[in-house]
Amino acid sequence: MRLYNIVMSRNVSSIINYANTIIISQKGNSYLFKIHNVICNVRYYEYNNERDRELFNKYIGKTINIIAKIMNKNTFNFSLVIKIVNIDKPKSGLVKDITLDADFINSGYTMIPYDKSQEREIVVYRREENIKVLVHELIHAFEFEYFILNHDEVDILNTFIHDKYKVEDPHSFEGICDALTVIILDKLNIPKFSYDKALKHIWDKIGQIIYFSGNKNWPPINTFMQTTHGFEYYILKPVILDLLNKSIRKLTAKDIINHLESESIKQRIQNKLSSSIYILDDPKNKDLNISMKMVELEYHEDN
Ligand SMILES: [Zn+2]
After folding, report:
1. 122 C-alpha to center of ligand 1: Å?
2. By the number of CB atoms within 10 A of the CB, which of 21, 37, 139, 283 ranks highest?
3. Mean pLDDT score across all residues of the chain
4. Which residues surround ligand 1, an ion (CB under 5 A)?
5. Does a structural domain hold residue 240?
6. Residue 221's pLDDT is what?
7. Assign residue 151 a region: left if phi > 0, alpha if psi is -120 to 50, beta otherwise?
């Protein structure tokens, strides 16, 4: 029993220092802890590196603390299962006129039951970008995106994006969620993460994704073929990030629409598009593999 306790505290020690975190137990690849009254059951599948698991536990605790602090809430009334799977299938490279589907875009998901007091579940299944995806899904699990932009405002923004850019069934809250993800990643002090580098990468993707959608002008009306949310992840997100400028605060649809439609944003997007056209139209670069990774960041065993 004593030995078990020692093993337990070593495995979960990295989250002990975070306020409101109470360690319950650790068994094999499964960890149980309590934070802001949320019982977190974290399970790792084919993820055998203990140091990586400790890092993930630490980032889960820290992310929940950041969210709770900004929402000004000490307790939440649900439990959370987090499954970290380790599938080594990087996002495919872009080619012209491609339909953006889950293989390109998605690496995890969150399920919130209708009865919101019931258990919520996060699955992060793609090894590529897994910490970024974990933070993104934690924001969904705590519905933190709607704290920034409430449901009515999200509807207004969705209608605008649908009418103006002809994007089918837009999910603006995904753009909000992914922008918040980048700001929280910056607050986690992850050794290999640089906010400025992430921002540059995100803005470079704007030009590439419009180019591969078959358009050479902004706005790219009617060009977003998507079964998932490319417009929201690759266009809306950077615009929101630029608007927030690292501060996490409440927004209105009008704030975002005004920024998306501002001359400075239009000019920046057109410039990114022009440089992508210049690079990608050059036959020398025909074999460039343009990945749709959203940030340059991941942790795995050979790091
Ligand atoms: Zn999402």
Report:
1. 11
2. 139
3. 81
4. 174
5. yes
6. 65
7. alpha
From the CA of 209, how far away is ligand 1's center (Å)?
A: 19
* Domain around 258: 146-291
In a domain, 73, yes or no: no
274 alpha carbon – ligand 1 mean position (Å): 29
**Span 123-161, pLDDT tens digits:** 888 777 888 889 999 999 999 999 999 999 999 999 999
Cα–Cα distance measured from residue 51 to residue 187, given in angstroms and rounded to the nearest whole number:
20
- The answer to the question of residue 69 being in a domain is no
DSSP string, the chain: -HHHHHHHHHHHHHHHTSTTEEEEEEETTEEEEEETTEEEEEEESS---HHHHHHHHHHHHHHHHHHHHHHT-S--S-EEEEEEEEE--PPPBP-TT--B-HHHH-SEEEE--SSTTSPEEEEEEESTTHHHHHHHHHHHHTTTHHHHS-HHHHHHHHHHHHHHH--SS--HHHHHHHHHHHHHHHHTT-TT--HHHHHHHHHHHHHHHHHHTT--SSS-TT---BSS-HHIIIIIHHHHHHHHTT------HHHHHHHHTSHHHHHHHHHHHHHHHHHHTSGGGTT---B--SSS----TT-
Q: pLDDT per residue over 168-198, tens digit each? A: 889 999 999 999 999 999 999 888 788 998 8
Centre of ligand 1 to C-alpha 224, Å, is: 18
From residue 22, give the alpha-carbon distance in Å to each of 1, 30, 53.
Answer: 19, 15, 17
Low-confidence ranges of the chain (pLDDT < 50): 1-19, 298-303
- Report how many domains make up the chain: 1
For residue 78, is it within any domain?
A: no
Centre of ligand 1 to C-alpha 62, Å, is 19
Tell how far the Cα of 6 is from the centroid of ligand 1, in angstroms.
37
Give residues with Cβ within 8 angstroms of 47, minimum separation 6: 29, 53, 84, 85, 86
